Amino acid sequence: MIAGSSTSVATFLELLKQTAMRSGEAVRLQWKDTDLERRLITLNEPEKGSLPRQWNNLSQKLIDMLNAMPRNDTRVFGSYTLNSLKAMFSRARKRVAVKLQNPRLLDIHFHTLRHWKATMEYHKTKDLLHVMAFLGHKKSDNTLLYVQLDQKLFNDAQDEFTVKTAKTPEEASKLIEVGFQLADTIDGIHLYRKRK
Asked: Alpha-carbon torsion 124, 39, 61, 77, what sign?
C-alpha cells in the first residue's frame, strides 16, 4: 500500500460526506479551489452538467484532514486516480465487513455518501431548492429523489427540535448564524427552532 494512502482515502470519504461531491469531482479538486483558513471549497469543474458550487461550512475535522495532505501536486489528492481510491476503499470496506460480520457494508460506495448527505440536508431543512443548489442540480426532478428517501426513512419519526429564545437583535442574529429559524413571537420574545 502506498504511504499515506489510508489518510488519503479517509480524507476523500470525509470530503464526499460533507459536500456530497461526486467522486470524480472530488478526485479532480485542486488546491487553488480551497481556502482552508476560511473553511471554503469551490467546485469549478462539476460533472454531468451540474452547476458550480461552493461550501463554506466545512467542519474543523475536514479542514485538519486536508491540511495534513501533502501539497506536492496541484490536485488535493495528488496522483491518485479514482480507480486507485476505489480499490483502497474496497479493500478497507471488505476488511470491516468481515470483522463486523456485516455483508451489507459491501453495498456502500462513494456515491452512497452523496445520497446520504442530500437526504440528510432535505430532512434537516425540508427545502427542496436548498438541496437542489447544494447538489448543483439544474432541474428539481433530479432532487425529488431525496424527498422520497426522506419520506421512506423518516415517515414514522416525529420531527424533534431544539428551541431557543431571543430578546435582542444580537441574540437573534447569533441563533440565525447557527441555523435556527424564527418559529413564533410571544409577548415580545422571539422563539427560534432548529431540527435536531
From this structure: positive
Provide the grid cell at 164.
Answer: 431557543
Q: DSSP class of residue 158?
A: P
What is the pLDDT averaged over residues 109-127? 92
Number of C-beta neighbours around residue 10 at 10 A? 14
Phi, psi values for residue 192, rounded to 5°: -115, 150
13 Cβ contact list (under 8 Å, min separation 6):
89, 110, 113
For the chain, list the domains and their CATH numbers: 5-153 (1.10.443.10), 161-195 (no CATH)
Gap between the Cα atoms of 62 and 60, Å rounded: 5
Q: How confident is the model at residue 20 (pLDDT cuts 50, 70, 90)?
A: very high
Q: Residue 84: CB partners within 8 Å, gap ≥ 6?
A: none
Lowest-pLDDT range, 13-17, 59-63, 115-119, 146-150? 146-150
Mark 151-176 as b/e (b = at least 16 C-beta within 10 Å): eeeeeeeeeeeeebebeeeeebeebe
Sheet holding 34-35, edge to edge: 34-35, 40-43, 53-55
